[in-house]
Amino acid sequence: MSPYVLVARRPQNPLGWWIYLPVFLLAALLMAWMIAGAGASLAQLIDGLPWIGDFLARMLPPNFSYIGANLIGPTLQTIQIALLGTLLAVVLAIPLSFLAAHNLSPSPVVYHFSRQVLNVGRGINEIILALIFVAAVGLGPFAGVLALTVHGAGMLGKFFAEAIEEVDRGPIEAMESAGCSTSRIILFAILPQVLPAWLGVALYRLEANIRVSTILGMVGAGGIGFELMTTMKLFEYENTAACVLVILALVFAADLISARLRKLVR
């Protein structure tokens, strides 16, 4: 038997268990503050359950004939909005990400300015952006594309910049010592390291854009969301249920395809 024995003891708290009491009280006060500010009420929710049941009952059975006659075009338009919005967001995010990465930005002023541009882009909700662009370019899918582009560029630019900041400096220093140009360093030392992460984030963004684009139509930005809002305003709840089913199928398909593509990227 070994003469050395490892003994593990639980660390002793000299102040006792009551030292955690202020933490629990603070957590309880914070929870009460959040509930009061949000107006959360379990009784109100229970009172509203019959109205939810009544609304769902009006949607049954769904009008499946409405899908083939009215929803194929808007569904394809929703996919087009999401794809184009994601593509344009990537195009804008790539140059901004190099300026917003502290290890590649030409100066602190450019770095902080680029960071704030990205913050503004992703800080404004897509629906608010869609309302702004609807006022600028009119009703239709183009306003939705612009909203997804601006918000997506802000989000993707941040993640792209963080991926650039985490690259291995070894290949970069080797190419710098060999006298390579900045463009060659970016092309052969940085992009191979960040491209898998970029593709993964871009696919996540595409998946999110498909979900968001179904909502943008509710504010006049085209797609199946516009049909959803129209059927609700006309109290055609069976057609509303058909729209909801198509949206769910679109989201599930986008999630499945995105997961397969991310697996291929890895």
TrEMBL record:
<dbReference type="InterPro" id="IPR000515">
    <property type="entry name" value="MetI-like"/>
</dbReference>
<protein>
    <submittedName>
        <fullName>Phosphonate transport system permease protein</fullName>
    </submittedName>
</protein>
<dbReference type="GO" id="GO:0005886">
    <property type="term" value="C:plasma membrane"/>
</dbReference>
<keyword id="KW-0472">Membrane</keyword>
<keyword id="KW-1003">Cell membrane</keyword>
<feature type="transmembrane region" description="Helical">
    <location>
        <begin position="185"/>
        <end position="204"/>
    </location>
</feature>
<dbReference type="Pfam" id="PF00528">
    <property type="entry name" value="BPD_transp_1"/>
</dbReference>
<keyword id="KW-1133">Transmembrane helix</keyword>
<feature type="transmembrane region" description="Helical">
    <location>
        <begin position="127"/>
        <end position="150"/>
    </location>
</feature>
<feature type="transmembrane region" description="Helical">
    <location>
        <begin position="15"/>
        <end position="36"/>
    </location>
</feature>
<feature type="domain" description="ABC transmembrane type-1">
    <location>
        <begin position="75"/>
        <end position="258"/>
    </location>
</feature>
<dbReference type="InterPro" id="IPR035906">
    <property type="entry name" value="MetI-like_sf"/>
</dbReference>
<dbReference type="InterPro" id="IPR005769">
    <property type="entry name" value="PhnE/PtxC"/>
</dbReference>
<feature type="transmembrane region" description="Helical">
    <location>
        <begin position="210"/>
        <end position="229"/>
    </location>
</feature>
<comment type="similarity">
    <text>Belongs to the binding-protein-dependent transport system permease family.</text>
</comment>
<feature type="transmembrane region" description="Helical">
    <location>
        <begin position="241"/>
        <end position="261"/>
    </location>
</feature>
<keyword id="KW-0813">Transport</keyword>
<keyword id="KW-0812">Transmembrane</keyword>
<dbReference type="GO" id="GO:0015416">
    <property type="term" value="F:ABC-type phosphonate transporter activity"/>
</dbReference>
<feature type="transmembrane region" description="Helical">
    <location>
        <begin position="81"/>
        <end position="101"/>
    </location>
</feature>
